[in-house]
Amino acid sequence: MKVLVTCFDAFGGETINSAQKAVDLLPSRVRFTRIITAQIPTKYDASVEIIKRLLEVHSPDVLLMVGQAAGRTQPELERIGINWDSASTADNGGDIHLNQKICEDGPDGLFTTLPVEKLAAACRENGLPCNISYSAGTFVCNHVLYSILYYVGENHLPLKVGFLHLPATMEQALTKKYPFMEPQTAAAVIKLLVSTLTNQE
Questions:
Q1: pTM to 2 decimals?
Q2: Which of 115, 102, 93 is nearest to 40 (CA)?
Q3: What pLDDT, in 10s, does the model give residues 128-160?
Q4: Which residues make Cβ contacts (< 8 Å) with residue 106, sequence separation at least 6?
Q5: 28 with 152: CB under 8 angstroms?
Q6: Which terminus of the chain faces fewer neighbouring Cβ atoms within 10 Å, N or C?
Q7: Catalytic residue IDs
Q8: E strand spans, 76-166
């Protein structure tokens, strides 16, 4: 089994991204599962195209995209991506998407194909925090979640797709009074998610 785990670079004036910090700590294997990691840019269109190329190169069984959501208190698995971009913050290419569809002929929302209830429960049973979210926002994280779910569905790819949002790091939280989580704990959550998926195969 192969799992591709992606993370974003820093954005919004930050010098680090909590998702990148956690993904950098992942091992290359968990049990019999190979973990492939990749950083993608916080850019609407470029991020999607790079993920598509990574899928072609690696042919993973699972794609887990990981992003930062400063202000959240614990890791959260996203249930749904919505067909809508609307953020006043520019991406790292300077693009601003306000009140526009991601895919003109796509449905309003697409659900993750990961068993999020089982994954979140497995984390809690092992003493790690994890919850389920029903909003991935309307910035680049939601954009890639919806875009890749649409792409996988249209092309009938045998691939499970999901998205995990992580809180800020302590370094980021000190100046903005966010809730925070150390990268080591966040990485442990990702490893357990991968291990749980492996056990279901």
A1: 0.97
A2: 93
A3: 999 999 999 999 999 999 999 999 999 999 999
A4: 83, 146, 150
A5: no
A6: C
A7: 78, 141, 165
A8: 76-78, 80-82, 109-111, 131-133, 160-166
